[in-house]
Design a protein that fits this description.
The complex is a heterodimer. Helix content of chain A is 46%, strand content 15%. Chain A is built from twelve helices and eleven strands. Chain A has a six-stranded parallel beta sheet with strand order 2-1-3-4-5-11, with helices on both faces. A three-stranded parallel beta sheet of chain A has the order 7-6-8, with helices on both faces. In chain A, helix 3 packs parallel to helix 4. Chain A is globular and about 70 Å long. Chain A starts with a helix and ends with a helix. In chain B, helix 2 runs antiparallel to helix 14. The radius of gyration of chain B is 20 Å and the shape is globular. The chains are: A alpha/beta, B mainly alpha. At the A-B interface, helix 1, strand 2, helix 3 and helix 4 of A face helix 2, helix 3, helix 11, helix 12 and helix 13 of B.
Chain lengths: 355, 317
């Protein structure tokens, strides 16, 4: 056998493998789709085929959200309301998320839950899904389309809650470093807009540096360290995310500097640090993007299929963590990278979704 | 006859392999979505793949010159932002918006080309710096997701216009233009400069001009990709372009474009982009865990590349 025919054999074998491998997938899928051949009758929410399309699945917040959602799915399955639940991860690529939504339309899902990668780019695809009779509910990071049900918190209120507390703490006077999320991301821009509106009322509060960073400890720590070395005499830090707050506080502690007030989020690493430095006079406020938003979104979708008139926009109140109730939230035995928040009672959920 | 087919296949071993892979993916796809070959599906899929195909075409142009464009995603975002923020109701409407977006993208490309040609900087450095520069400019043009694209255009693009798959038509037109361009002096110069710069210079080609023109052409393809993405999504998002940089490189490499310049064909790139796009969709259909989807995607890419390299080494043996 010469080299050429060996190559030919490899080529043929490879293409046969490709075909065989992929058709093997088909057999599997045929049996699974045959089972879930659900009919979508809107009045009776029975045997719903539910899909969750999310822009990221890897962050711990998303993992916790998935767990909470799966818990609710198990409940709904045993109640005979949901037949199947699938999670689709776009891995940060909005174009891929559009593809996911189109795929779910083609596969005749009954309910699509979305955590959007872009506040505008998904609109045409989501509206197409709604037009195809699919119930679409978005939560957390929301699209701007008015045709889908949106479950979220008021991001501007988040920003103004943090800024108001900080302004009070500083008695309306001082220099502040602002720690924001990535530039151009809607959540970050909204939270900052809310904060900026508050700071405008205090002409004596000076934002000496406005830092943009990933909502992630390592890049945030770097970003804060460079801003802080330029302005070591600040009186406070406005931060709009837990990892950003943790990065700022960590820098102050490590460099043994004065623990100025830093606003926060229910990121366990930050809450733990807050707790342990409370005696040294550190004070903060924190709120949360609660993981139960996902459960509310799912419950809203099922309720909608049952004929409940679910409001188009469901704004979930922001929890408030202060120096006083910190002990109820912080979980010393849990990893830093977790988001301690308790389930929302069913009665509260029912109230929010208009049951 | 048989000999003609085998000799044609021998010259195109990599393309034939890619076609087999594409066929395999299509057969599987047909199982999950039996409407695959219906006009509606062709429109939807071509609408989805157009940005990647055009971005990969831009990347191909740069890679044929022996470079690599890390600013592609940023320039794509810039073109998208310029296109969607231009108020379509004022003078000239959509046409002006298209021209403005293309001008921005071509200028960005030409700037890369000039720095590579005259400052003698490595393309990877120039385009990496350019990626920061243009994402900054994009945020000035459009600080957060928004902008506006006329609804009629969005509808025609995503759902077809009088039964015509507009995106597929656009891709065909761009490819035809490339085919014509390839036979001209400029097109040939592109391959010559990418393959052997000193040789091209010695035979009297204006190598620097060719580089600038090549990068500008890449900018034009990238700009078209950005406009396509804006029309597909009905808006613009300043951060949406980033994944296109690496995806376009993956499509090129899978399509047989050499990292060292001068080798490869546009149809290979298009096939590569189609395989990547369809494969992603297919993995969504199979419904396996998202983490395994990434693994499968990576393994298929590596195996396809390894096989291709193995099968096309015959020239060297």
């Amino acid at each position: 056998m010469n080299a050429g025919s060996v190559r030919g054999a490899v080529a043929v074998a490879a293409s046969l493998c490709a075909l065989a491998g992929i058709s093997a997938c088909d057999v599997q899928s045929d049996s699974s789709t045959a089972k879930s051949g659900s009919s979508a009758s809107p009045a009776a929410a029975k045997d719903l085929k539910v899909g969750w399309s999310t822009i990221y699945l890897t962050p711990s917040w998303m993992q916790q959200t998935l767990k909470m959602m799966e818990g609710d799915v198990t409940k709904l399955k045993s109640a005979g309301k949901v037949s199947s639940f699938k999670t689709l991860n776009a891995n940060g690529d909005t174009s891929q998320q559009i593809a996911q939504i189109r795929a779910m339309i083609q596969q005749k899902y009954d309910v699509i839950i979305v955590d959007a990668g872009s506040s505008t780019a998904l609109n045409p695809a989501l509206e197409q899904a709604v037009a195809a009779g699919i119930t679409v509910v978005a939560f957390d990071s929301l699209p701007t389309s008015t045709k889908v049900i949106r479950v979220g918190t008021d991001q501007k209120a988040w920003g103004s809650m943090m800024a108001t507390w900080l302004a009070d703490k500083l008695k309306g006077k001082g220099t502040v470093i602002a720690m924001n999320g990535p530039a151009g991301v809607a959540v970050s821009e909204d939270r900052w807009a809310g904060a900026a509106a508050v700071f405008k009322k205090y002409p004596d509060i000076k934002i000496v540096s406005n830092v943009h960073s990933e909502y992630n400890l390592a890049p945030a720590a770097q970003a804060f360290a460079s801003a802080y070395s330029a302005h070591p005499d600040i009186d406070g830090v406005f931060s709009q995310g837990g990892a950003l707050s943790a990065a700022a506080l960590q820098t102050l502690v490590k460099q043994d500097k004065k623990l100025v007030p830093v606003t926060g989020e229910n990121y366990n690493g930050f809450l733990k640090m807050w707790r342990s430095h409370q005696k040294a006079g550190f004070s903060s406020i924190a709120t949360a993007q609660p993981n139960y938003l996902a459960v509310i979104a799912l419950e809203a979708a099922v309720a909608k299929r049952e004929g409940v008139s679910v409001p188009q926009d469901i704004t979930v109140p922001l929890p408030e963590i202060t120096d006083k109730n910190l002990a109820d939230y912080v979980k010393p035995d849990q990893p830093d990278d977790s988001y301690p928040i308790n389930d929302l009672p069913q009665s509260e959920i029912d109230k929010l979704i208009g049951k | 006859m048989r000999e003609r087919i085998t000799s044609a296949a021998r010259g195109n071993t990599d393309l034939v392999g890619l076609l087999v892979l594409l066929l395999a993916v299509l057969v599987a796809y047909q199982h999950y979505d039996s409407s695959l070959l219906s006009p509606a599906s062709v429109t939807i899929l071509s609408a989805q793949f157009l940005p990647l195909i055009l971005a990969a075409a831009g990347q191909t142009t740069v890679m044929l010159l022996g470079g690599i464009d890390l600013s592609l995603g940023a320039v794509l975002g810039l073109a998208m932002a310029v296109f969607a923020t231009y108020d379509a109701h004022s003078a000239g409407g959509v046409v002006t918006a298209v021209v403005a977006a293309l001008c921005a993208a071509v200028a960005a490309g030409a700037a890369n080309g000039t720095l590579v040609a005259y400052a003698g900087l490595p393309p990877i450095v120039v385009t990496l710096a350019a990626s920061f520069l243009w994402s900054g400019v994009t945020l000035i043009v459009l600080p957060q997701p928004g902008g506006h694209v006329p609804g009629g255009l969005v509808n025609a693009y995503n759902n077809g216009w009088n039964g015509l798959a507009v995106p597929a038509l656009a891709i065909t037109l761009v490819l035809a233009a490339w085919k014509v361009l390839r036979t001209t002096r400029h097109g040939l110069a592109l391959y010559a400069v990418g393959g052997n710069e000193h040789g091209a210079y010695a035979s009297g080609l204006h190598t620097r001009g060719t580089k600038i023109a090549g990068y500008a052409l890449a900018g034009a393809f990238t700009g078209l990709a950005g406009i396509g993405l804006a029309v597909q999504t009905g808006s613009a998002d300043p951060t949406i372009g980033t994944p296109y940089t690496l995806n376009s490189i993956a499509a090129c490499v899978l399509g047989g474009i050499s990292f060292f310049g001068g080798v490869g064909r546009m149809r290979g790139t298009v096939l590569g982009a189609l395989v990547i796009g369809l494969l992603t969709n297919l993995l969504l259909f199979t419904g396996i865990s998202p983490f395994y989807q990434l693994i499968v995607q990576g393994v298929i890419l590596v195996v396809a590349l390894a096989l291709k390299t193995y099968l096309t080494r015959e020239a060297a043996v």
